[in-house]
Amino acid sequence: MSKRREAFITRQPGKAVWTLAASVYTLVQLPFWLVYFIPSSFRQHSQWTYRQAIMNKLLRLFLYHCSYVEIKTPIQLEETGAFIQIRPSVDHVYDGLLGDLDVQPTITGGSWYPSPYEEGDKQRVILHFHGGALVIYEGRPSDVDFSANLLVKNLDAKAFLPSYRLSSNDHCHFPAALQDAVTAYRYLLDQGISPDRIVLSGDSAGASLVVSLLRHIGNPKTKLPVPSAALLFSPWLDIKSARDPASVTGNRNYETDYVPANFTGWGAHTYIPAHMDVNNPHFSPLDHPFRTQTPLWVQVGGLEILYDEGIRFAEVMKEKGNRVEVCVEPLANHDILLVGHLSGLEAEAEHVVKLAGEFLSTIGKTKPKHKAIATA
């Protein structure tokens, strides 16, 4: 896209014009797809239902057009319902993340499910980071109700879902989201919640944040204790490669997934600042495995574009001596935890969360020590 065209499309009134045109285009196409997907052999996968075929087609169109106009998702920090604000912690917990003067720890927030933590609660606490290529979604019920309720229901837990800064907004590139992740983790510890009872969790880009947070906790200067476990749902582990559209369109599972190349590309280009080396470990955990005391559970869909990334990441992390368990949901595509209710894969989403619960039930047998270790 030319600079002039990009400036028109990503700003008003160009953004409104494109959105209207895209809506009309989709409505015109919809009758064709409604007929086209009636035979199962014409669907993205022959074992998918009619609803799954239609909804995944619509999801791809929606994400494509959102990315094309670079829709903004400003983070709203008003305290409503179970959403609370969190203030930054002391500087040492952000060691190594304060070099960019444009991106500093700030007030953030998140939502508790099903209710805020209270002193004396004995349940485990899931610190879950939502997906969205680091550019869309918030930690509020309108975006994360489905995933939060699945986690709470099937893991016998309370959950806290932060609204971390999105790189689609100004001055919110790396390490803004990671700073907010550190703030959220420190907040739970400050509530008196033992790290033995804290489980890090994330889907897609949120899973990438979990890996970055674990790497950061491994820095002894942060003085942060290690959490009991980490759950990675459809983790995005090679952000830097997504700058090239071919990394998506050339993927063997491209046709069965709903993720368009411009969506991941938008996230990668806005998240990685121009002044940083793209080979930084936080931009490609796949190429930079490390040692952690925290047991890892990695879930991938057999039909998603990130399948190979997830499997390879599990392998290289095992080679580092980590405890890693892999879960493959054969007929699922990307991030069913976040959008399974939209893509028609609700049952598959609940199934993988139940498997995550089985994994967590084994953690007490190999508790991590409560001190940080240096990463390799």
Structural write-up:
With 376 residues, the protein is an alpha/beta fold. Helices cover 38% and strands 12% of the residues. It has eleven helices and eight strands. The protein has helices spanning 3-9, 14-36, 50-69, 141-155, 176-190, 205-217, 246-249, 261-271, 307-319, 336-343, 346-360; strands at 83-86, 108-113, 124-129, 157-162, 198-203, 229-233, 296-301, 324-329. Strands 1-2-4-3-5-6-7-8 form an eight-stranded mixed beta sheet, sandwiched between helices. Helix 4 links the parallel strand 3 and strand 4. Helix 2 runs antiparallel to helix 3 and helix 4 packs across helix 10 (336-343). The N and C termini lie far apart (40 Å).
Give me a quick take on this structure.
By secondary structure, the protein is α/β, with parallel strands linked by helices. Helices cover 38% and strands 12% of the residues.
Fraction of residues in helices?
Answer: 25-40%
Total strands: 8
Radius of gyration: 20 Å
Q: Spans with pLDDT under 50 lasting ≥5 residues?
A: 366-376
Structural class: alpha/beta
Average residue pLDDT = 94
Based on CA inertia axes, which overall geometry fits?
globular
- Helix-strand topology string: HHHEEEHEHEHEHHEHEHH
Distance between the termini: 40 Å
